[in-house]
Amino acid sequence: MKKLILICSLICYTAFAKAQTTKHTPEVLDTIYANDDKNVALFFPNPIRQGITGANHFVFTYNREREQHFGLLQAKPGKESNLLIINNNGDIFSYIVKYKNHLKRYNYFIPLSTAIGNEKPKKDLLTNLDTLPAPRFDKSAYYERFCSYLIKRTQRIGRIKTRQSGIIMAVENIVFDKEELYFVVQVDNRSSLDYDLNFMDFSITTRKKGKKKSLQKLYQTPSYVHKKPTKIKKGTSARMVFVLPKFSISNERRVVVELNETNGERNLALLIADHFINHPN
Prior knowledge:
Strand content: 35-45%
Keywords: Signal
InterPro entries: Conjug_transposon_TraN
Oligomer: single chain
Shape: rod-shaped
Radius of gyration: 41 Å
Organism: Aquimarina rubra
Largest sheet: 5 strands, mixed
Pfam families: DUF4138 (PF13595)
Protein name: DUF4138 domain-containing protein
């Protein structure tokens, strides 16, 4: 007797656990069956604003004047079709509908979790998109591409050149782009010794007026330097680009480009007139 009671208790507990699991597990609904003898009712979490069937032998009726949470589906024999439902809050539901002579189910309670989307973006999603940082502009990569392009060009701005002891320095081009000036410089080593490049500086000089005349220098720091070598072997040349923030000068000022040799005295200074700075390519 005790054994029989134990078995019955176990069966009841198993059935209860299964019922609880079924109750809390969301139903995945993708196909709804209907016919022309019975009404199949669909209940949605929000009132229906629009219901559309894909074929004339399926009819979905709902209250168009006063929004309600349910609609009725009927069908005549024919090929399967689809049903699209839009709630008044924009939630979208989509199903396959089929004709069936004998129905096992007449009522469907549709959970919100089965919505396939919303016809308009959620407000909080738009807010999040507005607060996202703007894509970062990779300026180094842009400098690299544009400077490589300038080095390959044969465009010249004028004759800006100086020489000393077989070392020739020329500013071949000055180009304005995106609020910056690009100085294309070429150094030729026609001497019998390699040239070890220490530095190349850019500055703006102003001649101080008065009895004791002197030069005042304002050094310009490049934003980017492209292809500047540390050594220029004898009989070779090197082309490089210096990117400086945009500036202009009066006719009383000059830009000075200074080339300095490491452990040597072959130092060059090249003056650039205001015309070339104020009218770049």
